[in-house]
Amino acid sequence: MVKVREDHPITYDGAIDLDAWLSRLKLKREAQQMQMLRRAAELVFGHHEALTSTGASCCAQGLEMAEILAGLGLDTDTLVAAVLYNTVESGSILLEVVEKELGPGIAKLVQGVSEMEAHTIAVDDPFVSSGAETFEIRKLEVSCRENNHMGMG
What we know:
By secondary structure, the protein is mainly alpha-helical. The chain has helices spanning 18-24, 31-45, 58-71, 76-89, 95-102, 104-115, 131-146.
């Protein structure tokens, strides 16, 4: 089997190495933008036990989604929303907390993606490991386009 993505970098105690993950994104962002990504990751790390409806780790899926979207050149707000989305959707983090910690723009973006959940579509993409991941990517892409977040920022 071909491995499409690298595993998340792990520290000696088995936790995800946040610094290594951020540097792996190879983003050319301002310090404030990197701090937003760091804060979003710290929020989901605080709820590492949260699972998606399919039983996957919300934290791991959020980081994976952000990596994919970073590779597509999407802006910082979109990456932050990607990190948070599954954990908010699971109910482990409230939108009010997202708004307080990262601002109303991020909260609105996460909420917009959540609202799109009602418009479930069947997607089958052989380049992504599951149809659910493909759908998540497409939801975020549509939301980003609707919110004019397609440029680097």
